[in-house]
């Protein structure tokens, strides 16, 4: 009886408050994988593992993916699908991204007062939802072209979290200056629940438009996404040449992406079109007014310092003065030193958002190590290599897009650009074809990958952020809301590859 009770206790503790069916599914995965290795071989087992990991991402609102995904990654190493050394290699190769997450996201946290101040003015000043959505999307695209998609996503998350926190506090019957936990709706008055649901939908709209915007801008320049810089180095392209090479594809995609944004809001399809209710607008206006009345010279100094630091951030990243992670650390130092944030516990809060995702990203690199070690993409690569000319270029775009939806666009681009470089060095393709394939690889990994949250690090960061459960943004909902963008942008990119490059 005692052993049975202990077994129940262990099962209850396993993955905490996750549903029973979810716990059982993860246990079934862990039992199935070693059997598959023995019966079907490591190649099949590797693909099943990838699907299982994607399942943990899809169920992120049931259980944070770090724990179930981590168990799958650990098991993959134990049963020989990858090794710890391979995981370390993948992590080292992506170390700049890890530094970016650790320091830049924390740095953005210390700019939140200035960001909330600026975006509150924009939100209250622009009453048209179509114009506001286009503004969020275009601004995210513009910033991502000169900064990077993860940084821009961190900014938008900080802004949306600020808006949500302000209204949720009032909806719970509290004043702006009161302490409040906006992670639970227990205190929300029945009168405000409908408006809160609408506000969540409104914020989901803006977050998805902005997230897509980071992809629209991220494809354009060599600093937009990590793989862009790798491709530029191999091809010997400068910042300007990279932009010009991508323009025949990136510019039509940008235009179609913005047109899609406006159409979705105008026709109110795929979960878009939710307006900012007058009640919520009134609360935000009251907040803005009260903050302005209470703002002291010291508060104004904080806003000025944060504004100057934000300009330093943009300048440093736009001109490539240092790795984004190093710039993030600079932001932390400047924003805290000149605004009086010196206590360790106040610094620690800023890292709470980034470090769980950083850990999840290393787990993701373990899955990437399995993909690499087991050659899961090799048959697709070999198939594409059988073709030549425009057909090969078009197939490269499609293959990179599909594989980026499944795994990670940085990994896919790295694999393909190195394969193509080897072909060029061996004299199998001309320089002109080498250039065309590089464009196909970059656009293929950046554009169709908006289809799933695991396609781009910025999307995955949004899915696993503290904001996502607050505004009810799940994996499935992200896929659904991205679907029209995926369709219009991917087809535009394909046609541009075929007819304009």
Summarize the helix and strand pattern as letters: HHHHHHHHHHHHHHHHHHHHHHHH
Report strand %: under 5%
Residue share in helix: over 70%
Largest sheet: none
Number of helices: 24
Give me the count of strands.
0
Tell the overall outline: globular
Assembly of the depicted chains = single chain
Question: Which parts are unreliable, with pLDDT below 50 for 5 consecutive residues or more?
Answer: none
End-to-end distance, in Å? 72 Å
Rg for CA atoms: 23 Å
Mean pLDDT rating: 87
**Which class do the helix and strand fractions yield?**
mainly alpha
Give structural notes.
With 501 residues, this protein is an all-alpha fold. Among the domains are: 1-81; 95-222 and 263-353, no CATH class. Helix content is 77%, strand content 0%. It has 24 helices and no strands. The chain has helices spanning 2-13, 20-39, 42-58, 66-78, 84-93, 95-109, 112-125, 129-146, 149-171, 190-218, 226-235, 239-267, 278-294, 297-318, 324-337, 344-350, 354-373, 378-385, 389-406, 409-425, 431-446, 457-463, 467-470, 475-499. Helix 6 (95-109) packs parallel to helix 15 (324-337) and helix 21 (431-446) packs antiparallel against helix 24. The chain is globular and about 70 Å long. 45% of the residues are buried. The model has no long low-confidence stretch (mean pLDDT 87).
